[in-house]
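I am writing to request your help with a piece of structural work I have in hand. The matter concerns a single protein, recorded as an amino acid sequence and a row of backbone structure tokens. Could you please explain, in whatever detail you think fit, how the structure tokens follow from the sequence? Thank you for your consideration; the sequence and its tokens are set out here:
>
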Amino acid sequence: MRFVADVPAYFDRGGPRLHELQVRAGQARRLDVAFRQLRAGQALPATRPPELLATGPAEVRFAYRTLAPDGSPGPWQDTWATPDVLPPQVRVRIRDGQGPWPDLVVALVRAGGAGR
């Protein structure tokens, strides 16, 4: 999952960064996030290694909520085909060897109605 969001000033001078959440395989699976600075709409090479969020996830699933024609919450989808339009909500589901974690559901903020 990739998205752009501001980071605080104490984090590598702050400002907008491309966030990339990814499950990586190796000796042990891991969920991590990488941050890349943006300049003129282009992501620059990473200046620091990805940060570990979780080790050993058996499954990580991202889902995107749609809107029904009447504007009410619609069904969840596994992919989001229109990157120029933000989904109303994003969900992350993680399951490890001990079972499922609580779902993380984020409502995306649209400043001034942008992204519609």
Remarks:
- The chain has no helices and ten strands.
- The mean pLDDT is 86.
- The CA atoms of residues 53 and 102 lie 15 Å apart.
- Strands lie at 2-7, 15-24, 30-39, 42-43, 51-55, 59-67, 73-77, 89-96, 99-100, 104-107.
